[in-house]
């Protein structure tokens, strides 16, 4: 009867998973800290992707309008190139910061926290740049 035992173990683990979700208010272990940092990064990355998508759609529309007027364009391509360069920077910067903790249990947490911070900053930068230069066009 190994199947009922596995089901029982799985059911007993459910409250532990729910408790783990609440532990982000005050994580106690490295594993909890890394789990919470991972969730923060996923949320920050989703917000960045949404902001990038919004700005990119507006830039494509501007490019189309500028092309009609024979007044240049290339705004969407410029953002795409800048974003690709930024991703390289972000990954390199966070790898460097984490390297100070190479081999230690804090290395993944430092990297993930860095990714989150830089991703949030980039989201704010995209929105501010659009607000400063694109919104009035």
From TrEMBL:
Cited InterPro entries: LprI-like_N
Signal peptide span: 1-20
Claim: Protein transport is one of the keywords in the record: no
Transmembrane segments: none
All copies of domain Lysozyme inhibitor LprI-like N-terminal, residue ranges: 24-126
Keywords: Signal
PANTHER family: PERIPLASMIC PROTEIN (PTHR39176:SF1), PERIPLASMIC PROTEIN-RELATED (PTHR39176)
Name of protein: Lysozyme inhibitor LprI family protein
């Amino acid at each position: 009867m190994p199947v009922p035992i596995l089901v029982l173990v799985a059911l007993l683990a459910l409250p532990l998973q729910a408790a783990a979700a609440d532990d982000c208010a005050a994580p106690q272990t490295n594993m909890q800290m890394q789990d919470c940092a991972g969730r923060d990064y996923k949320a920050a990355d989703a917000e960045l992707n949404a902001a990038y998508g919004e700005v990119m759609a507006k830039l494509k529309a501007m490019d189309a309008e500028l092309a009609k007027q024979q007044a240049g364009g290339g705004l969407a391509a410029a953002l795409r190139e800048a974003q690709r360069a930024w991703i390289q920077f972000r990954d390199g910067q966070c790898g460097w910061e984490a390297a100070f903790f190479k081999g230690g249990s804090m290395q993944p947490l430092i990297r993930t926290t860095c990714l989150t911070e830089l991703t949030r900053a980039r989201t704010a930068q995209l929105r501010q740049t659009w607000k400063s230069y694109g919104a009035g066009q």
